[in-house]
Amino acid sequence: MDLQQLRYVVAVAATASFTRAAATCFVTQSALSHRIAALEREIGQRLFVRTSRSVALTEAGEAFLTHARAAVSSADQAVEEAAAASGAIVGVLRLGVIPTVTAIDVAGALRAYRAAHPSSRVEMRMGNSDALIAAIRSRELDVAVLGLREGAVPDGVASRTLATERLQAVFSADHRLAAATSVDLADLAGELFADFPAGTAGRMQSDVAFRAAGVERDVAFEADSAELILDLVASGLAVTLLARGVVRRSVARVAAVDVRDGPARSEYLAWHATDPRSAARAFLNIASDRLA
Questions:
Q1: In the chain, which stretches have pLDDT less than 50?
Q2: Nearest CA to 63 among 84, 88, 42, 46?
């Protein structure tokens, strides 16, 4: 058994395909299949069930995969830490961001990171804060920018607060409240709302505020995209609550109004609580310098 065989197992499990796994590992499918078959003979267990249309892990494969992933991750981290000891950052920086990030110039920070560490690859994905936190815990991500309701601290990860901003009520330009200087949550009773999906951190900040105010609201439209939410509002189909910075950068034809008893949203930079990778530490240093 060798490390390359473990990499092949991890790749097949991730892609559910010997063909796609071979492509990601830059080997021929026959070579990859041969090495996995040799590994199965060595350990005396079938790791994958193969059909003409699909590849699935066996029960033994599920058990083996957990340790294979850990071994591959440890080997990669050993290489990265050895390079970091001499001042070089290699490997992949995996960054997660919420779709409504405003507290940090993500593109600018990544540009500075790539300039300082050209041997490191950057991968970025977008998602809601709860999913990003879980991905950091499981080491699928190294660093993430999160958005949580004021006072809610990211659980199970290390973090620092980037900024806290109030949410504003957002209306179409011809809405009855578009010209108001400010409103209360009670003024929004009876309106149709557009918001993020129920149960997500982006939705929670508004749900908690309305419950605390004793105001019921009707969320008729759910979307993962702030841009789509603003389009719905601009079309007169709904109203919404969004952070000031998100509304400010929008080109949609909307009116934003302060909410006297409305919620606030805090953005955080988060990373693995106990053992961040060298790429994560390097990015955090750059991000901190840009925020100082």
A1: none
A2: 46
Which amino acid type is present at position 247? V
DSSP per-residue codes, 15-74 = HT-HHHHHHHHTS-HHHHHHHHHHHHHHHTS--EEE-SS-EEE-HHHHHHHHHHHHHHHH
Query: Could you identify the residue written with the tokens 């009855």?
Result: 176
Determine the Cα–Cα distance for residues 222 and 170; give it in Å rounded to an integer. Answer: 15
Q: CA 105 to CA 113: how far, in whole Å? A: 12
Q: Give 228's contacts (C-beta < 8 A, 6+ positions apart).
A: none
* CA of residue 245 relative to chain centroid, distance: 19
What tokens were used for 263? Answer: 């919620």
Render pLDDT for 22-42 as a digit per residue (tens, 0 to 9): 898 888 999 999 999 999 999
Report phi then psi at 169, rounded to 5: -80, 135
Q: What is the pLDDT of residue 14?
A: 87
